[in-house]
Amino acid sequence: MMFSRREMLAGGATGLAGLTLGSSLWARAQMLDTAYVNATVWTGEGMPVQRSAIGIAGGRIAAIGAAAVKGQSGKTTRIIDLGGAFVMPGFTDAHTHFLTGSYLLSQPNLREAKSPQEFARVVGEAAKALKPGQWLQGGSWDAELWGGELPDRSWMDPVTPNTPVAVQRLDLHMLALNSLALKLAGIDRNTPDVPGGMIVRDKDGNPTGILKDAAMDLVKRAIPAPTDADKEDAARRGIAHGLSRGVVQVHTTELDWITHDTLRRLRSKGETDMRFYSFVPLQDWAKLKALIEAEGRGDDWVRWGGLKLQYDGSLGSRTAMFYRPYDDAPDNSGFPIHKRADVQQWTNDADAAGLQITIHGIGDKANDEALDIFAATAAKNGRRDRRFRIEHAQHLAPAAIPRFARQQVIASVQPYHAIDDGRWAIQRVGAERLKGTYAFKSLLDAGAKVAFGSDWPVAPLDPLTGVAAAVLRQTIDGANPGGWLPEQKISMLQALHAYTATNAFAGFSDDRMGLLKPGMLADFAVLDADLFAIDPARIGATKVLRTIVGGRQRFGEGSDI
């Protein structure tokens, strides 16, 4: 059964207000269902002050520390000895394209293709496993791995004569199509570009097979939609994958309703094992408002109330919006996906309806304009706890950094992108503009709230990989052992806080998630190493042993499911 926010609030101690006021009373009244002992428990509060035990009752944390756990244990309490393992609040990933990533778990992966020949080989092998006419999707290709030349339909045509192909760049801002896919989508030399997108053409004006940003919709309409059962099966694979990485919640920052509807169907069938906070398109704010008025905001398994808008493109696709042209494309400075006046109106209206808003901003101009839009909305609609966000906040002009704190805008960033893009970003924007790139420490020093995510499947759904990226800043090609832009390294404490407490705040769940203390939801990860005690170089080798969500072990040996 799902409960609306109104119903939860009306429920007293199970609602938002009741949890904060009544957590200590609630905890004292509980006999523990499960006690995890012989552990190193980091509660997530401040410095790594650690305890040795944690107790659970009714899906919530009821006791912390050996004495409290012993005092609330009884004959029916299940005792689990963790053998000294490290316990911490479960990870939240604040930025995912969850259903897309879930599909890719069973689709061809071009992430490791390092040449056009390897690209074609992987596509050809994948096509052999499909029925004639069945679309080949997946992808995650990265042209930078073979020098930057974009894929061409001629690479794929010889190995896919009967298979339409539409494989995406790893940043999800480009699709590579073969000739059959172009034909089925009705795209030829006479097809005009669309606002906010681009059809890449050869010297004769014919499509090469590359579609950028909004132009991708031209082919997406031609691809048969998966069934509801297909979507749910994919989501379940993604949930299992995330739980194995210690993830207890993800924010699904989408530009459609497909993931939202899929998650709601899953929730109607029971607990989803992982928690979700769903974002839908900003343009659809009125539809979301009507849903909330009719049904509330979901529950702690699947919640909604957030809206997202993509304002510009990506650095890799040269569609992110900058004040000055790209260094390696002097006739191009990127472009907006939507008209600024429209974005301002949507933001004003959605905010007035009490909805949370986040804007995708990559380039320095896009980020400045997003901050301006938020400032104008706040001035128009008055003070309230709105928690505006900018997704990526990737390339910032120096004056933008203090604005995040001053305007109380959350910077929702992805550490892995820094160590990925760091291999080639200087080619795009030059050394001077890198000073505001992936500026995690500068934002924190300015007093801004910095939330961490992956952008899965653009980057791995693996917070430990993100923690390593933020702490070490070593690019994935090994070329920067001392760290890329090392002045932006942050501490282990700051990185873990961003993946737990700050992410809870960024999703309006900080009253019940992100920390381990009595009354909070019993969501935590058990690791094989104390992250505060190990050499940071070993972060990536740390293993998740167990993931507990709602007091039940959802991943690990002896899981409850």
UniProtKB/TrEMBL annotation:
<dbReference type="Pfam" id="PF07969">
    <property type="entry name" value="Amidohydro_3"/>
</dbReference>
<feature type="domain" description="Amidohydrolase 3">
    <location>
        <begin position="78"/>
        <end position="553"/>
    </location>
</feature>
<dbReference type="GO" id="GO:0016810">
    <property type="term" value="F:hydrolase activity, acting on carbon-nitrogen (but not peptide) bonds"/>
</dbReference>
<dbReference type="InterPro" id="IPR011059">
    <property type="entry name" value="Metal-dep_hydrolase_composite"/>
</dbReference>
<dbReference type="InterPro" id="IPR006311">
    <property type="entry name" value="TAT_signal"/>
</dbReference>
<dbReference type="InterPro" id="IPR033932">
    <property type="entry name" value="YtcJ-like"/>
</dbReference>
<dbReference type="InterPro" id="IPR032466">
    <property type="entry name" value="Metal_Hydrolase"/>
</dbReference>
<dbReference type="InterPro" id="IPR013108">
    <property type="entry name" value="Amidohydro_3"/>
</dbReference>
<protein>
    <recommendedName>
        <fullName>Amidohydrolase 3 domain-containing protein</fullName>
    </recommendedName>
</protein>
